[in-house]
Amino acid sequence: MTTTYVKWGEATVKLTWKPGMYPTQYEFITSVHGFCFYKEQILLVDLNHRGWDFPGGHMEGNETSEECFKREAMEEGYVTGDCQLIGSIIVDHTQNQFWDVKGKYPKIGYQIFYRMDIDKLYPFNAEYESDQRILLSIDQIADYYHEWNELYQEILVEASNINSKRRN
């Protein structure tokens, strides 16, 4: 478990990584993300106006978090594959003086993370919110991802270990 503080705009937000944890309250899941692996490489997508990132986004309608991640991976990276839960980031706004009780995010929310083992790379069409995709070795990600931090590093290590556990 790792905790870090990040700046989101003017706000300071506490983020805590909990491996294997899935929240019991569906309505507090604010987004779903993940690492997509293909032949020992990781997929990053160049999101319009935000730079390189891993696929993810918000749940739509009644979809599950896994369905959301699969949809986002297809829309942003044009990939499909099998997924496994890695864990959750607890997004804690209790020390955020700019948090709005009437805003769209709860005071304590959750970002769910999955590992996808890509089984199909489709032609990249840039029809949604990403301009391009790239496959990188694990040690290259921090050079591309604009807000890489120790929390994401721990999640990536956990995602990589899932593959090691599958082989043992």
Could you provide a short overview of the structure?
This protein has helices at 65-77, 141-144, 150-167; strands at 2-8, 11-19, 29-38, 41-47, 51-53, 56-57, 79-92, 108-121, 130-136.
Taking all Cα atoms into account, the compactness measure Rg is: 16 Å
Helix content: 10-25%
Shape: globular
Assign the CATH superfamily: Nucleoside Triphosphate Pyrophosphohydrolase
For the residues shown, what is the average pLDDT? Answer: 91
Number of strands: 9
State the end-to-end CA separation.
24 Å
Largest sheet: 9 strands, mixed
The low-confidence runs, each spanning 5 or more residues with pLDDT under 50, are none
- Count every helix, treating DSSP H or I runs of 4 or more residues as helices: 3
Which secondary-structure class do the elements indicate?
alpha+beta
- State the CATH class: Alpha Beta
Q: Report the CATH topology name.
A: Nucleoside Triphosphate Pyrophosphohydrolase
**Helix-strand sequence:** EEEEEEHEEEHH
The name of the CATH architecture is: Alpha-Beta Complex
> What is the count of distinct domains?
1
Strand percent estimate: 35-45%
